[in-house]
Amino acid sequence: MAGRGTDEHPHGADRLCDLGDRVYSRAVRRGRVPRRDAEPVPCLLDLALLHPDPDDMEWLVPTAPQEVMTRLLRGMYDEVSASQRRVGSAVEAFEWYAGLGRGTQSPQAFAASAGEGPAIRVLDGVARIQAAMDEATQACTTEVLTVQPGGIRREAELSEGLHRATALRGRGVRMRDLYTHVARHGQGLHGYLELMGAAVEARTLDEVTERLILFDRTVAFIPANAERSMALELRHPALVEYLGTVFERLWRLALPLAAPLPDTGIEGISHRERSIAALLAEGHQDAVIAERLGISVRTCRAHIARLSETLGAASRTQLGVKMAQAGLDGPPRSAAASASVTIPDRESRTAR
User: Fold this and answer.
1) What tens digit of pLDDT does each residue of 39-55 get?
2) Which residues form the HTH luxR-type domain (predicted)?
């Protein structure tokens, strides 16, 4: 049956076939469906959306929609994380191979490659980075995609690139920016977006990749060291296309800046605390969590303290157990996936 379902219904749980959608919807409404109803759509069993009723094997009961949504979001979260790791590996590989040819390249070959522009160029120093960015801005005609980690953007950072953004807006270039959710609290960012108007669209995520600026899907800039005093200018078509794909996947997962953050579904626990709980469950230290979410270590620990108080945990070990019992040990769910959750040992704390 599994093989037949894969061949005839090549889709995932996020885009069911019409018949599968009808049968699963009926099962959710009624609590179960006869096994014969699912025979034309074996994909529902293959995808674990239906499973046998232990009390009567002739009937099938549905997997809760909330569980299905959590499974899908976890898969997307893992996919984005894997993409981030692959970007780092690809950059390291290109740097390595480019370095091998520097000592043996003939003057003629060097001149030819210089005329075309190297696939990867290391920019050493802030002045050199700014000059390369200005050059790319002048050549840009269609769109600019940026990923801006680090939480609240300081006004100095926003002012630094304002002249480039203004020039792009004047030429009708579309700009899309990704920030962390923490950036929503910075007045400087709201002022910048108000100034730029419809030319710039911003969305936010719990955490984003390292900084990325991509012009016209032709040239990209990423940091080359932790201090960001060096950068890589990337022009290799395959690598630039890959970075564009990573951006688009993050963009689809992100929330528009004007949209509210989704409710966690648990009274007394904020969206940020929900994100911190998921990273704690992965085993990350406080400093790492703070960096990934764009907040200070002190703020991170204050949220962890509130988590412990809300869940009634007296230690970090007990907090881990309580988080698992409350379903906080995975990536955040969307608002549509929120279900009724009762916090362990707190009868009065129930979310709907």
Assistant:
1) 888 888 877 788 788 77
2) 262-327
Dihedral (C-alpha) 18, 24, 27, 29: value to the nearest 10 degrees?
-80
What pLDDT, on the 0 to 100 scale, is given for residue 99? 67
Digit-coded pLDDT (tens) for 140-186:
999 999 998 877 766 666 667 788 888 899 999 999 999 988 888 77
What number of CA atoms fall less than 13 Å from residue 201's CA on the CB side?
A: 11
Distance of alpha carbon 182 from alpha carbon 261, whole angstroms: 11
pLDDT digits (tens, 9 = 90+) for 208-226: 888 999 999 999 999 998 8
